[in-house]
Amino acid sequence: MAGDLPKVEGAHLILVSHRNGAIDGYSVLAAYPEAQFLISIQLLRKFLLRLMFAGIPVVRAQDKRRYGIKRSVCADPIVASCDYLRAGGTLALFPEGTSDWGPHPQPCQAGSARIVRRLLEEGVKLTVTPLGLFYHVPDRFRSDVDLLPGPPVVLPPQNPDETPRAWEKRIAAALEKALDAVSPNCPDMDVFARVEKLAAADVGPSPLQPSYAQAFKHWEAVARNTPEQLPEASNLPVKKACGCQAWVWPFIACFCLVFAPVLLVGAYVGTKADGRNTVSFFRIIGGFATALVWLPVLLVLWGCFPLHMTIALLLALVGGWKWKR
């Protein structure tokens, strides 16, 4: 993770760049386990999904269009969010409303600014932190992800004789500017791909080297300010698909053998994803459903062959832990 992630007392709103579908939530929870989320109601439609996701439901326009869900089926998410923050909670939301593995951020929706404006009107002391997500290889197993926090957003006060709507627009502009500053933000996909490769080449084991997120933002700035200094793709180093040392491979093989059904089903379901930003989500859904069946089978085998299965499971756990892409 890049930088020191701020720990805030009292009401804390975290604005997160949306890059890799529902997986983004798990990345944020790793740093802020106390956080509550605003989530699309599509992630609560099925029993299996409700085992994996929880939060304050939001019926987006695309949810209404795709599934015919009316906004009246759940409580007003703005009211629920304000109540949660007013009580001193930590709320994470994705202002873009949808994820896309594209070169730059998408426009922010109005909800975050509306929440902030209402709380400021009440005099609630609120800290707003922008948080960028940088996946090294988002659609591969055990990809690293860096979290890049920005400084707390300076929230503009209401001007005399300014309408609440006009004030809310200025708040929205401040929030979007802060989030864009810590998000991947390249001119186009060609530059984005080159910046990705340059950032990966800069990362190394030395603590003096920048994190992937920091390296990405450095080369992104070069691309925007002095594009003539950005190397061509053909001159960039090729990143290895897997950085595992040779001694790790037997452990990885054991992991693949023990959890073969879960991995195979997850890999197959991942091919049905409609974009690079949803591949990991599809794989996790497929793998999780298979694990509900396969793990009891492993328990039965462990009861029948305790010594052999204990050794196999220990080796598999080491392989899964050391497997890095």
Strand-helix topology:
Layout (H helix, E strand, L loop, with lengths): L10 E6 L6 H9 L4 E5 L6 H6 L3 E3 L2 H7 L9 H10 L3 E4 L17 H11 L4 E10 L9 E5 L14 H18 L7 H14 L9 H14 L23 H10 L1 H11 L8 H26 L1 H17 L3
Parallel strand pairs: 1-4, 1-5, 2-3, 2-4
Antiparallel strand pairs: 5-6
Helix pairs in contact: 4-5, 5-6, 7-8, 9-12, 10-11, 11-12
How does this structure look, described?
With 325 residues, the chain is an alpha/beta fold. It folds into three domains: 171 residues, Glycerol-3-phosphate (1)-acyltransferase (3-Layer(aba) Sandwich), CATH 3.40.1130; 47 residues, no CATH class; 77 residues, no CATH class. Helices cover 47% and strands 10% of the residues. The protein is built from twelve helices and six strands. Strands 3-2-4-1-5-6 form a six-stranded mixed β-sheet, sandwiched between helices. Helix 2 links the parallel strand 2 and strand 3. Helix 7 packs across helix 8 and helix 9 crosses helix 12. The longest helix is centred in the last third of the chain and has 26 residues. The two termini are 16 Å apart. The mean pLDDT is 88.
